Amino acid sequence: MDLFDAVTTGQHGTPVVERAGSGAPLAVRMRPASLDEVSGQEHLLRPGSPLRRLVEPADEAARRAAPGSVILWGPPGTGKTTLAYLVATVSGRRFVELSAVTAGVKDVRQVVDDARRRLATSGEETVLFIDEVHRFSKSQQDALLPSVENRWVTLVAATTENPSFSVNSPLLSRSLLLTLRPLTGEHVRDLVRRAVADERGLGGAVELAPDAEDQLVRMAGGDARKALTVLEAAAGTALSEAQAGARAAGEAEVAGGPVVVGLETVERAVDVAAVRYDRDGDQHYDIVSAFIKSIRGSDVDAALHYLARMVAAGEDPRFIARRIVISAAEDVGMADPSALQTAVAAAQAVQLVGMPEGRIVLAEAVVHLATAPKSNAAYAGIGAALEDVRAGRIGVVPPHLRDAHYSGAERLGHGKGYQYAHDAPHAIAPQQYLPDELVGRRYYTPSDRGYERQVAERLERIREILGRARPPQR
Fold this sequence. Notes:
Layout: E1 7-9, E2 15-17, H1 26-29, H2 50-55, H3 60-65, E3 69-73, H4 80-89, E4 94-99, H5 105-121, E5 126-131, H6 138-142, H7 145-149, E6 154-159, H8 163-166, H9 169-173, E7 176-179, H10 185-197, E8 206-208, H11 210-220, H12 224-248, E9 259-261, H13 263-269, H14 282-296, H15 300-312, H16 317-332, H17 338-353, H18 358-371, H19 377-390, H20 452-466
Parallel strand pairs: 3-6, 3-7, 4-5, 5-6, 8-9
Antiparallel strand pairs: 1-2
């Protein structure tokens, strides 16, 4: 669907895109008409930047030097679609849009074949915009390669996921990757105020109360499209109510200037602001990462915040519980062995009671882990042991520790000289346990935090006793 009608020349010769009709959604009507109106992406729009050369080539040489394929990576509502439209319409190219959700290889090839014919017969260039390109399969992405290499189309692909994982290497290597930054609250506030005042938007028909504006910006979460959608719904509600009130009073129209949109109206315009968290995308990994790191860092408030974001977004509570169990073993460890017990109990309880009550169980486990003393000594210990094993530092099991229960084992010397630990003082038998090559190797170094401080004191005495072991006779 083409949302723009024509390209004209604005002040100082800047190309400007004329807007779609007034019946289009507010977010569409308020799309930037030129690069100068794009907010929050100044790092991509500096004079001479690749994106600016692609949108506004100074001459034919500049157009040929512009990138032939661009991947726009960024969160929702940051302007990826807008930039794609500007690449096409401001530069006078034909615009074709495909959605990776519904398009297949046949659709891609049809568009490319049509673009080749137009380029050969009339010289008309085509911008192919693919939204959510990360949803394309490998074969679909491979189908784009010839058109990118031969510049039959200018490919502009948008994705909310890290292209390093979601776009195959051949296409990624042939494309210019541009990362869009999340919009700040002030960027969203400026866009909202512009939409209220601009004739393309609400034309001053309403006025946002300060607390309503603050709430709208918070609910948007850096998503300009969401902010304008909620604003349009709230303004429509306020205008409808004001008109109904005027009719009830026998007046033909609302008097007294702009209709004020208050906090309650904004909150009624949308039941719950959707949490920006894609369980299959980058947000999933970012939030989980922040959640675990907050527990590790003992910031209980941050840990509960990220837990709430996952719960509100409908994350599988079993997934959250598994991460808590791992954190208990990896980050709390022997500094508080009861943390693992709490985490396992929470995982079982969540399966038993389900949601929404399971959130309380998860919160209790998170509070325990975040406020517990921390030690990764056990985690580091198994890591060091595995490193030795993988490097071939293994040796053979000492004969006195080998299995002596089968026929002929005694003849081989298995079990000879073994000391039963429970018969020794303190149940610690001073004998060699590690292979000869690893005698004296230390994998576990307890911290001085929490319960592990007691473990450290006991381990020091244990190792002293074990150090008295005489070399076994072979």
